[in-house]
Design brief:
Layout (H helix, E strand, L loop, with lengths): L1 H6 L6 E5 L2 E4 H17 L7 E5 L3 H14 L2 E5 L5 H11 L2 E2 L2 H7 L22 E7 L5 E7 H14 L7 E4 L6 H13 L3 E4 L5 H10 L4 E4 L1 H10 L14 E4 L6 H11 L3 E7 L3 E6 L7 E5 L4 E5 L11 E7 L6 E3 L11 E9 L5 E6 L3 E4 L2 E4 H9 L4 E9 L2 E8 L4 H9 L10 E4 L13 H6 L7
Parallel strand pairs: 1-9, 3-4, 3-5, 4-6, 8-9, 8-10, 10-11, 11-12, 23-24
Antiparallel strand pairs: 1-2, 6-7, 7-17, 12-13, 13-14, 14-19, 15-16, 16-18, 18-19, 20-21, 22-23
Helix pairs in contact: 2-3, 6-7, 8-9, 9-10
Length: 463
């Protein structure tokens, strides 16, 4: 990202629009360059991991680019990450946390006008990585390393996949520090010299007002956000709000036929789906609205294959495990193992089917497995069985301390009720040993349940 920023250092093109303030690429480069003297003053090491709390989206952008130019491993910590998770991360990574004093100096708007000591980023090619947090089914947060070169590729991949002509304007309705929006919007904007629009939080009415006042060409969200936008949009006036939209992309959950048609009816824009992971970046996009069961096809310069349990490639139309390979892939985990096959592909244990045209259909995920009394148990199958019980609104099953625990949001049910119903539906080894009834699940900013909070939380009723 930094080499692309350097190329734009004399450009008056708008880089960022935030709270109606326009910052050109020339100003942004100057700001990031000046911040190198601040980091030098505080003698921050380049060989260590440096973390910072994300207070707002604009500060995130400035701090990330400043640290990327400095040359280090960067760990952004979202505001919704529980304190105990941060403490656990400190034990594993031994990071340096940016002080409020440093942050205050680094995000000062006057930095884009101050005299520079140097306009070169000497450390940019050193060991610069983003450390992205990704949750596992066990509740243990994995720390995923992605190099700057991998991130650059992902930003280019989105432009090439959708054949976008530079310059264009981008907006994310999701937090930019989330891996989906980070690559699809933030990196995309910087490496392609485009304009990044920044909003601090999702308010449907405010977002629609913003869209009416600005020319947005690419926007990212999650499907639930799309539904909320539809629910508050005024009939008749909404179609002109996205008149300049070229790509509207949703991820982290399925874009159903209902959501697709609802969004198109309101805004006259196709809501496309994106599949990827923190490890792989954006990998697959669906652009054909006619088949809602399919994830889509491989993005630009991404390679896919489907293999059996032994790692052997299977014919088109056969169910197997998805393998992904691209220059945008991660470098590995911190203190967790990962495996690539002999050709450099990684699998995340998603069961899929690949057709003759290259479309991927998602079937399920095999990574959420537990071994109970010698028998393999699918946590997803247990969750489905519990969800079918009358009165259960939502549930999550985790494998923690060698036992299954079910967390439920339910009305007028007891552990005995659940046990009796599950005896009729699943093997006794698959019945959770513990049932915890809660009012609601803790979720992150993308709407995903925080599994780490469940595994550590001892509160709740067992009856």
């Amino acid at each position: 990202m930094i080499q692309y920023l350097e190329r734009m250092k004399e450009s008056d093109r708008i880089a960022i629009i935030y709270r109606e303030k326009n910052i050109t690429y020339k100003q942004l480069f100057h700001w990031i360059a000046f911040n190198q003297s601040i980091l030098e003053k505080y003698r921050l090491p380049t060989a260590e991991s440096i973390a910072f709390h994300v207070a707002n989206q604009f500060e995130f952008v400035i701090l990330f680019l400043s640290l990327a130019a400095w040359g280090t491993k960067i760990l952004p910590i979202s505001s919704d990450v529980p304190k105990r998770d941060v403490e656990n991360l400190q034990e594993r990574v031994n990071f340096i946390l940016l002080s409020e004093e440093i942050i205050k100096e680094a995000v000062n708007e006057n930095n884009c006008e101050r005299e520079l000591v140097s306009d070169r980023f000497e450390n940019r090619e050193k060991d610069t990585h983003l450390i992205h947090m990704t949750s596992g089914s066990s509740g243990r947060i994995k720390l995923c390393l992605r190099s700057m070169k991998a991130l650059d590729f992902e930003g280019l991949s989105y432009r090439m996949t959708f054949h976008l002509n530079v310059p264009y304007d981008l907006l994310s309705l999701c937090p930019l520090e989330h891996s989906f929006s980070f690559g699809a919007v933030f990196v995309n904007a910087v490496v392609n010299g485009c304009t990044l629009h920044i909003v601090d939080k999702f308010n449907p009415r405010q977002i629609l007002k913003y869209l009416g006042n600005h020319r947005i060409n690419m926007m990212t969200m999650i499907p639930d956000m799309a539904k909320l936008l539809c629910s508050v949009a005024m009939q008749g006036d909404s179609k002109c709000l996205m008149r300049d939209m070229k790509v509207c992309l949703a991820a982290t959950a399925k874009v159903t036929e209902e959501i697709y048609h609802m969004f198109y009816e309101k805004f006259h824009v196709k809501l496309l789906s994106n599949y990827g992971s923190t490890e792989t970046g954006g990998a697959i996009c669906r652009t054909d609205e006619n088949d809602y069961e399919k994830l889509g096809k491989a993005m630009w310069n991404v390679k896919l294959k489907v293999c059996d349990a032994n790692g052997q490639k299977v014919p088109a139309g056969t169910e197997g495990f998805l393998y992904i390979k691209s220059p945008g892939m991660f470098s590995g985990y911190i203190d967790d193992e990962y495996l690539l096959d002999g050709e450099g592909y990684v699998t995340l244990n998603d069961k899929v089917r690949l057709d003759q045209e290259g479309n991927i259909t998602f079937i399920g995920r095999d990574s959420r497995m537990a071994k109970i009394n010698g028998m393999k148990v699918s946590l997803e199958e247990v969750e489905k069985a519990i969800s079918d019980i009358g009165g259960v609104k939502e549930c999550k099953v985790i494998f923690c301390d060698n036992n299954l625990t079910a967390y439920l949001v339910a009305d007028h049910l007891s552990k005995a009720d659940c046990y009796l119903e599950l005896e009729k539906r699943i093997h006794k080894n698959a019945i959770p040993r513990k049932f915890v009834f809660i009012e609601k699940f803790q979720r992150d900013q993308m709407g995903k349940i925080r599994i780490s909070s469940l595994c550590q939380d001892e509160r709740g009723s067992n009856e």
